[in-house]
C-alpha cells in the first residue's frame, strides 16, 4: 500500500487557484464585453469559466482513475484563459 501524503490535497488546491484566477479573468472579460454591448462575449467568458469548473470538478471526483482526458482539456482551457487575460491587460 502506498501513502500519497498530501500530494492530492496540494494538487486540488492548485486546481482551485487556477479556477480563482480564471474567474477573475471571466469577470473582467464579461465586464468589458458588457460595456461594449456584446452579449456573445459575455456568454463566452462566463461559459469558458463554467467549462473549467466542470472539468476540474470531474477531475477531482475521478482522481483515483488516473489522468484521463481531463488534464489536457483543463490545460487547453487554462492556456486559452491566459491568452484572454493577456489581451485584457493589453487592451485596458
UniProtKB/TrEMBL annotation:
Residues 3-64 form the DUF202 domain. The chain crosses the membrane at residues 12-34, 40-58, 70-91. It is found in: Endomembrane system. Its main location: membrane. Keywords: Membrane, Transmembrane, Transmembrane helix. It is a multi-pass membrane protein. It comes from the Bacteria. This is DUF202 domain-containing protein. The lineage of its organism: Bacteria, Bacillati, Actinomycetota, Actinomycetes, Micromonosporales.
Amino acid at each position: 500500500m502506498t501513502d500519497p501524503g498530501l500530494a492530492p490535497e496540494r494538487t486540488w488546491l492548485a486546481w482551485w487557484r487556477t479556477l480563482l484566477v480564471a474567474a477573475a479573468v471571466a469577470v473582467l472579460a464579461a465586464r468589458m464585453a458588457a460595456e461594449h454591448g456584446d452579449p456573445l462575449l459575455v456568454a463566452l467568458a462566463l461559459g469558458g469559466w463554467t467549462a473549467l469548473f466542470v472539468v476540474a470538478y470531474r477531475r477531482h471526483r475521478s482522481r483515483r482513475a488516473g489522468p484521463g482526458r481531463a488534464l489536457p482539456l483543463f490545460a487547453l482551457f487554462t492556456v486559452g484563459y491566459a491568452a484572454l487575460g493577456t489581451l485584457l491587460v493589453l487592451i485596458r
